[in-house]
């Protein structure tokens, strides 16, 4: 029978003397223990405060309070426990057998399952590793793809392929950045992508800046090329026009004319496609920068930046430097502007909207206004016609070049037309200065031409050649550098005048050109040559060179008038019809007179040797007197030299003057005070001298016609007739008018009387050769006495 359940024991009172907080904790612990609540918080708190004694105390008290309850419960269930123990004892053997069976099964299971468990562990571990490896491979593959794009972007950056680099960066940002598991790599990419874009923008901006600097030089070269093409086209048109004029002159309107016309069209087509198809300038940096900014979504900002910079460049290009004369810088100035708008035309057509038509027109209006202001200012200051013409021609070529690209140039042409009247007022004065400079630089030496192009430039271009056969090189021309230099000045004058006149649209302007050409030749060149001859020619070689130059100028003047007619579009027959005399006659005569005068002075130097002649000698010099031999040597040398440069007619006139001068000097010597007495042997010696002169004249026959050879001998006819008279058997025949007119018409009776008086001497020293003293007088002496007597009667 179970005893009644004893009443539940309550926890006893806590130890007195603790403070109120400890008492509260003790009450809470007691209550928790009694109620079977979780003691974990109290245990942690107790051990945390380092005072576990209170808890242990309460636990011990609780354990003592439960011992009695356990005892009562055990008493109450004792019988049941005994029966249970007995039942358990009865089951002990079965349990032992079961235990042994389980132990055996467990051993077998352990022995069998141990490898399986090991394999299972390995499998689980392998699966874990596999999953980790898969994750790692995917992460690494992702990173590898990212790094490949990064490496490719770096390569593109290094090679300058910025667009491809930006595409790689965009791909990394859009496709890989969010999926990147590596936080380090992701942070790096997030930091570097904006930096790369900024670097690319700075890089292309720098390249654009370099291009903007470079394009100024390229524009200048491009403008020069375009203007040069326009100049070449104009020249081809002028050449074609001259060919057609020649054809019209010959009245041959045939297939040849058609060929000229077709060639003109082909040349025009070539010009149309010349700059269009050429790689004269590279816009790649500009278009790449534009494309990059489009990729960076900065297109509008780039357009504004480009237009502003180009406008600033145009304003800078439109300014004229005060440090450099405009004449030296005008080609660069206009070529720079021409190249600028050729570039802008290409950008407008191929830039994909980078610049608009309105913006280009705005820039062109700005440039035209600046150019017109510069031209007005510069033309008002110019005092040289050639300078004005050079600038006018270049501006007109600029207009032709840019008109082909659709730009209007009427305002520029109007400025040129305003200054037409000033041009011809300055042209002659400029040419006068050039003529003076060219003549002052003359060294009076024959011009040496080593190459064929020099011959073509200095001879053929002015039609100065005397033969159509090209000479061997090096070639020594008969003229000095003055001739081609002056010819170039005259030709330039003609071309400048025609160029200016033709620009105004006037069709018949040859008379105007011819009028100024006559003034240039008759006033400017002729006066300059006269001044040169009178002030700078001091030697025979110089005078001979100037005389040779004058003969060449005579041919050159024919070319000048033909050239002016051809450029003016006038048929040559009309130009020939209005031809005048040689406009340089004054200077030509002065050159020949100067040469003759200098040669006479040279002859006078040789004639001083005549004082060494023994006029009373009884021996006749077989080879002539010394002075005459020296003269003949000099004359032969002179002729051999003069033949190379002087025309035959000039050489003939000069030689005739020289020979006449020699004759006069010999006659003057015989008549002068130097010779007191004469022997017949001395007269015969002079005869030998005259024979030497005649022999020299005979040597000139290949250069002279028969008529000219006879005229050449008349140069020393006086001395020849005098010697013939003195050597004749009957000198008194001189007083016979008929004989005198036929044989001695060049003699002056006073000179004959003077020489005859010296030949006759009352002493036997002179006439001793005719007879001895006391002998009958020689008939010739008697005739000579008669002559002297009659001449005295006449005088």
UniProtKB/TrEMBL annotation:
Primary location = cytoplasm
**Positions of the region Disordered?**
1-21
Give the subcellular location: Cytoplasm, Cytosol
Q: Does the keyword Ribonucleoprotein apply?
A: no
**InterPro entries, A to Z:** EXOC6/Sec15, EXOC6/Sec15_C, EXOC6/Sec15_C_dom1, EXOC6_Sec15_N, EXOC6PINT-1/Sec15/Tip20_C_dom2
Report the domain of life of the source organism. Answer: Eukaryota
Tell me the Gene Ontology biological-process terms attached to this UniProt entry. Answer: acceptance of pollen; intracellular protein transport; pollen germination; pollen tube growth; vesicle tethering involved in exocytosis
Biased composition regions of type Basic residues, renumbered to the chain? 1-11
Q: Which residues form the Exocyst complex subunit EXOC6/Sec15 C-terminal domain?
A: 412-758
The UniProt family comment states: Belongs to the SEC15 family.
- Name listed for the protein in its UniProt record: Exocyst complex component
Instruction: Give the organism's phylogenetic lineage.
Output: Eukaryota, Viridiplantae, Streptophyta, Embryophyta, Tracheophyta
């Amino acid at each position: 029978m179970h005893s009644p359940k004893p009443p539940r024991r309550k926890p006893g009172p806590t130890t007195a003397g603790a403070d109120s907080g400890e008492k509260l904790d003790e009450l809470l612990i007691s209550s928790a223990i009694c109620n079977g609540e979780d003691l974990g918080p109290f245990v942690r708190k107790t051990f945390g405060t380092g005072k576990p004694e209170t808890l242990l105390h309460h636990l011990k008290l609780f354990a003592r309070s439960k011992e009695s309850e356990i005892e009562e419960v055990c008493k109450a269930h004792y019988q049941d426990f005994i029966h249970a123990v007995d039942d358990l004892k009865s089951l002990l053997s079965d349990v032992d057998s079961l235990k042994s069976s389980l132990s055996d099964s467990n051993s077998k299971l352990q022995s069998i399952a141990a490898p399986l468990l090991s394999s299972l562990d390995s499998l689980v571990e392998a699966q874990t590793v596999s999953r980790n490896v898969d994750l790692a491979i995917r992460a690494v593959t992702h990173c590898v793809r990212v790094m490949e794009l990064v490496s490719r972007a770096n390569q593109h950056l290094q090679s300058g392929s910025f667009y491809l680099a930006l595409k790689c960066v965009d791909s990394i940002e859009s496709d890989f950045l969010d999926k990147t598991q590596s936080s380090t790599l992701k942070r790096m990419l997030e930091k570097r992508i904006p930096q790369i874009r900024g670097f690319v923008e700075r890089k292309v901006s720098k390249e654009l800046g370099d291009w903007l600097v470079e394009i100024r030089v390229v524009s200048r070269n491009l403008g020069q090329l375009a203007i040069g093409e326009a100049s070449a086209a104009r020249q081809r048109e002028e050449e074609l026009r001259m060919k057609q004029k020649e054809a019209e002159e010959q009245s041959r309107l045939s297939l040849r004319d058609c060929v000229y016309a077709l060639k003109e069209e082909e040349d025009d087509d070539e010009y149309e496609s010349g700059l269009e198809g050429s790689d004269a300038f590279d816009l790649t940096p500009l278009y790449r920068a534009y494309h990059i900014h489009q990729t960076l979504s900065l297109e509008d900002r780039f357009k504004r930046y480009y237009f502003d910079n180009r406008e600033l460049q145009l304003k800078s290009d439109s300014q004229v430097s005060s440090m450099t004369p405009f004449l030296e810088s005008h080609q660069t100035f206009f070529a720079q502007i021409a190249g600028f708008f050729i570039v802008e035309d290409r950008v407008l057509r191929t830039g994909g909207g980078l610049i608009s038509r309105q913006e280009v027109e705005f820039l062109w209006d700005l440039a035209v206004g600046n150019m017109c202001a510069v031209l007005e200012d510069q033309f008002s200051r110019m005092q040289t016609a050639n300078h004005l013409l050079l600038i006018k021609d270049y501006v007109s070529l600029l207009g032709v070049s840019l008109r082909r690209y659709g730009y209007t140039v009427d305002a520029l042409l109007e400025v040129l037309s305003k200054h037409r009247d000033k041009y011809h007022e300055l042209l002659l004065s400029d040419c006068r200065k050039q003529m003076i400079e060219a003549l002052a630089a003359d060294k009076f030496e024959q011009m040496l031409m080593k190459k064929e192009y020099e011959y073509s430039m200095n001879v053929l271009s002015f039609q100065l050649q005397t033969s159509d056969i090209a000479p061997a090189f090096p070639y020594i021309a008969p003229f000095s550098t003055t001739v081609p230099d002056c010819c170039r000045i005259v030709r330039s004058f003609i071309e400048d005048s025609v160029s200016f006149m033709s620009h105004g649209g006037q069709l018949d302007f040859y008379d105007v050109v011819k009028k100024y050409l006559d003034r240039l030749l008759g006033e400017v060149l002729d006066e300059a040559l006269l001044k040169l001859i009178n002030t700078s020619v001091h030697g025979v070689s110089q005078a001979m060179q100037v005389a040779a130059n004058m003969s060449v100028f005579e041919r050159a003047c024919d070319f000048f008038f033909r050239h002016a007619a051809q450029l003016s579009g006038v048929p040559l027959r009309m130009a020939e019809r209005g031809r005048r005399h040689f406009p340089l006659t004054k200077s030509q005569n002065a050159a020949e007179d100067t040469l003759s005068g200098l040669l006479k002075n040279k002859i006078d130097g040789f004639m001083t040797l005549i004082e060494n002649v023994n006029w009373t000698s009884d021996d006749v010099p077989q080879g002539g007197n010394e002075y005459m031999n020296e003269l003949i040597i000099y004359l032969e040398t002179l002729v051999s030299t003069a033949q190379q440069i002087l025309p035959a007619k000039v050489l003939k006139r000069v030689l005739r003057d020289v020979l006449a001068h020699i004759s006069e000097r010999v006659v003057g010597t015989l008549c002068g005070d130097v010779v007191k007495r004469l022997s017949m042997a001395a007269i015969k010696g002079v005869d030998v001298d005259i024979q030497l002169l005649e022999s020299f004249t005979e040597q000139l026959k290949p250069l002279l016609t028969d008529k000219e050879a006879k005229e050449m001998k008349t140069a020393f006819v006086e001395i020849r007739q005098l010697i013939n008279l003195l050597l004749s058997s009957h000198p008194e025949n001189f007083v016979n008018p008929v004989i005198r007119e036929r044989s001695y018409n060049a003699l002056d009776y006073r000179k004959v009387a003077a020489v005859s008086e010296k030949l006759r001497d009352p002493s036997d020293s002179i006439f001793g050769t005719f007879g001895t003293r006391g002998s009958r007088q020689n008939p010739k002496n008697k005739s000579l006495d008669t002559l002297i007597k009659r001449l005295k009667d006449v005088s």
